[in-house]
Design goal:
alpha+beta; Heat Shock Protein 90; five-stranded mixed beta sheet; 11 helices; 11% strand
């Protein structure tokens, strides 16, 4: 059941601000009572009441089509009352300045502003030639009134920008949390997938050696214990923060898993990459881990070569195996997608070549190397 809305004079979000201006409507009502009699007095009070209603309605109609109509009604009342009753009714223009300043569209703002100028300047010019009053006082009074919409518009725009900024910050926080969950999931996949593959291979080896070579089986079981403890340590590190791993360190881990899978590893090039930032090395290491895991799981290869080199401002790390290749699109699963996502973070890309003679993965990452010579960066 829909909740029944309670009546309120002004929207609660504006606080006491609208009520302060409402007090000033006592001035035009007093002028009508003191200076007019009979039907003109009654008509004047009705018009003041209509102006008060329009003032209330404009708070509720902000952003709606009827907002323009209520503003037009206010300006007509100001124009009429200033000419027919008392030039002090020009004071009512201050009520309209706030609403004119609330226009966000520039075209509507200037159209309403011109209407306000006409509503107060025309009666003022007429009265100047018919009634004697202080022009200096009226000029200052008019200057403040006609400059107010610009100040109010600037204030409202600043407030809106602040609200938009807060909303954008909230969205950014949500996106950061989402990306962090994806990152943790990807890191767990890369880390545990690599380690569990190694444990699976070693457990199969232990099963084969337990009768033929018990001593070798015992050593492999001990190695499995070490690997499982290492996996537990890695999971803890992933929970607290991303662990920085160099390419050289990851190659040592790759050698273990490839050896356990009876795949011979060849390494070419400078794998230390001393000039490559730690963040880039960390991402390349994760990609290398996933690539080696895919070789063990899917390639059925007997040889694997990993090379590293720098070419034309790029670092290239290539994994080549002599396996069966990617026989269908199903093989390009979450592992390769994860590599592409990681490389995109550092403007890198994945180059994949596959045939029945094997698969070649290349990680290409742009790199800026700063060389220092005699204290001057070149």
């Amino acid at each position: 059941m829909k909740k029944k809305e309670t009546f309120s004079i002004f929207p609660k979000r504006y606080g006491l601000f609208p009520y302060v201006f409402l007090i000033y409507l006592g001035m035009p009502a007093t002028l009508v009572i003191q200076n007019e009699i009979g039907l003109k007095r009654i008509l004047g009070l009705i018009i003041v009441l209509i102006f008060a209603v329009s003032y209330r309605q404009m708070y509720f109609k902000a952003g709606k089509k009827s907002f323009d109509s209520w503003l037009a009604l206010q300006l007509i009342i100001i124009f009429f009352m200033s000419l027919v009753y008392d030039f002090n009714f020009l004071f009512l223009g201050f009520f309209s300045t706030y609403f004119i300043g609330s226009y966000t569209e520039q075209k509507k703002f200037f159209r309403a502003y011109i209407a306000l100028c006409l509503a107060v300047i025309i009666p003022l010019l007429y009265l100047y030639f018919t009634v004697s009053f202080s022009l200096i006082f009226i000029f200052l009074y008019l200057l403040v009134m006609l400059s107010s919409p610009f100040g109010i518009r600037s204030m409202i725009q600043r407030r809106n920008l602040k609200e938009q900024l807060n909303e954008a910050n909230e969205q950014i926080q949500q996106l950061i949390k989402r990306e962090e969950r994806i990152r943790i999931a990807r890191d767990l996949h890369d880390t545990l997938g690599h380690t569990l593959s190694l444990l699976t291979l070693k457990s199969e080896l232990v099963g084969k050696l337990i009768e033929k070579n018990p001593e070798r089986a015992r050593l492999e079981a001990k190695e499995m214990e070490r690997t499982s403890r290492s996996a537990l340590k890695q999971v803890r590190e992933l929970v607290t923060d991303m662990r920085a791993i160099t390419v050289a360190e990851e190659l040592n881990e790759a050698k273990l898993i490839l050896t356990a899978a009876c795949i011979e590893l060849y390494v070419e090039g400078d794998v230390d990459l001393p000039d490559v930032p730690s963040l880039t090395q960390n991402i390349l290491s994760m990609c290398l881990r996933e690539g080696v895991t895919n070789v063990v799981k899917h390639s059925q290869a007997s040889h694997c070569k990993i090379s590293s080199k720098a070419v034309a401002g790029h670092v290239l790390i290539t994994i080549i195996d002599d396996g069966v290749g990617l026989t269908n699109t199903i093989n390009k699963g979450n592992g390769l997608k994860g590599i592409e996502e990681r490389l995109s973070l550092i403007e890198g890309r994945l180059i994949l070549t596959s045939s029945q003679l094997g698969t070649e993965l290349t990680f290409q990452v742009p790199i800026i190397i700063k060389q220092l010579k005699e204290g001057v960066a070149l």
